[in-house]
Amino acid sequence: MKKRILIAEDESLIRMDVRLMLEDNGYEVVGEAGNGDKAIELAFAHRPDLILMDIKMPKINGLQASQVIASQLDLPILLITAYSQKEFIEKARQDNIVGYLVKPISEANLLPAVEVALHQADKTKRLKGDVQKANEMVEKRKLVERAKGILMDREHLSEPEAFKKMRSTSMSRQITLESLAKEIIEHVHN
Ligand SMILES: [Mg+2]
Predict the structure, then answer these.
(1) pTM of the full structure
(2) How many CB atoms lie within 10 A of CB 83?
(3) Residue limits of the ANTAR domain (predicted)?
């Protein structure tokens, strides 16, 4: 699937150039914004895979727009800047800013930057997914532990006995250990 990119840049010639370079190289440009307001609006509307964001733009500038977007959406942003704005970027240490591109933009600097940014974003997403899965596992384990404790108390079982009982019950009823654990816990609260 084509990666979807949003371009926010107030100079229309640069915008057009960047669009062509991206499209020529297999990317889909989902929108073009000429100011920070529009960039925010289009980010929410399209949820692109990547936003190319010029820093100096009318109305809301690129850094402010990036902040607004980051407060609600998990979208990677590649800043577009001129050399003179370098100190500006040093201040822009935001999680969603995955890199920056220095003007003038050409295929030679655009494409590697876009590729790295997208790769980085994928990696971050995967990591977040892994952390979430690990958290879910811990939660499941806690449920089972709690239910086991309840069984041990209620039926005067040892820990291995309680666990064995839960395992065989969940197998014979063909439900997961966690659902059985939930039933046991809810039963106590009822
Ligand atoms: Mg500009």
Answers:
(1) 0.71
(2) 7
(3) 124-185
Q: Which residues contact 100 (CB under 8 A, 6 or more apart)?
A: 78, 79, 80, 81, 89, 113
- What is the Å distance from ligand 1's center to 122 Cα? 28
Distance from Cα 116 to the centre of ligand 1, integer Å: 23
| Structural domains of the chain, ranges and CATH numbers in brackets | 4-105 (3.40.50.2300), 132-189 (1.10.10.10)
Q: What is the pLDDT of residues 19-66, one digit of tens each?
A: 999 999 999 999 999 999 999 999 999 999 999 999 999 989 998 999
Among residues of the chain, what percentage have pLDDT more than 70?
Answer: 92
The rounded Å distance from CA 73 to ligand 1 centre is 23
